[in-house]
Design brief:
By secondary structure, the protein is of the alpha/beta class. Helices cover about 25% and strands about 25% of the residues. Helix 7 crosses helix 9.
Length: about 260
């Protein structure tokens, strides 16, 4: 598996300024997967040479604009300009069926162009088969403003990748990611600021300490954390948790196959 970051910015300031992009990330393996295509995801696909027509599975973890904005166009690309019934979508209930106000992340037109649309339920493993290639995705629980939001553990090509999506730390969060080769954490903030719903450094340290992935990656970085130095923050997490940790950058590629051989 290879991960390509199409956006590593989090928070309001990055969303509007695009100082760091908000395109989510791509996982390239037997199946090409696009996760959380926020604003600019389509442009980022082209800038970082990730053909959106090759995406076999689209995952949208919750119905916030920085995660869902470009989902429609990615679905259109995946399904041959929405002319073929092709590609899978896994999304939170809010993305697919709508939230309590009736807002929905993706139009029925675009969902109708896909071969499968699945509402994710935490803990309920989904077996994926796209073009004869297989993988599985187990949605995980989150604690965030969108109550139906999910993270996930993906198993593909003999490796496992965990993604917290937007969440705060809660009792039991780490159990969901135990044994993952890589864990991507949306570490928005360096310090606790009294606003709930997101991970900050000391809680990501606790998460990594408990889950013990082989590699930890922080992304969805807020402006303040970036200004203070994202690499510095990653080093701090690594030192305190004992887990090798890197800070994601726009366009960064992480080759998990090489990571595995290099130990
Ligand atoms: Zn969110």
């Amino acid at each position: 598996m290879e991960i390509v970051f199409l956006g590593t910015g989090g928070g309001r300031w990055n969303l509007i300024s695009q100082a760091r992009r908000t395109g989510g990330f791509r996982i390239n393996g037997s199946i090409a997967i696009h996760v959380d295509p926020g604003p600019g995801a389509l442009i980022a696909c082209h800038d970082f040479r990730q053909d959106p027509r090759k995406v076999g599975l689209l995952v949208v973890t919750h119905n916030h604009i920085d995660h869902v904005n470009d989902a429609g166009v990615i679905a259109e690309a995946m399904s041959g300009f929405a002319l073929e019934k092709k590609g899978w979508l896994i999304g939170s209930r809010s993305v697919i069926l709508g939230d309590e106000k009736g807002d929905r992340g993706i139009s029925s037109y675009h969902m109708g162009a896909l071969a499968r649309v699945i509402v994710a339920k935490p803990g309920k493993k989904i077996s994926i088969a796209v073009n004869g290639k297989k993988a599985s995705l187990t949605p995980t629980r989150t604690k965030h403003d969108d109550k139906t939001g999910i993270g996930f553990v993906l198993e593909m090509d003999g490796q496992s990748l965990g993604y917290t999506s937007d969440t705060e730390y809660f009792y039991g969060i780490s159990d969901q990611y135990r044994g993952c080769d890589v864990l991507i954490a949306n570490n928005l903030k360096a310090k606790k600021d009294g606003v709930p719903g997101h991970l900050f450094t000391s809680h990501t340290i606790r998460l990594f300490q408990e889950a013990q992935p082989k590699l930890g990656i922080i992304t969805h970085l807020g402006m303040r954390l970036i200004r203070a130095g994202a690499e510095k923050e990653a080093k701090k997490i690594q030192k305190a948790s004992g887990v090798r940790t890197i800070a994601a950058k726009d366009g960064m590629r992480v080759d998990l196959a090489a990571f595995k051989t290099n130990g």
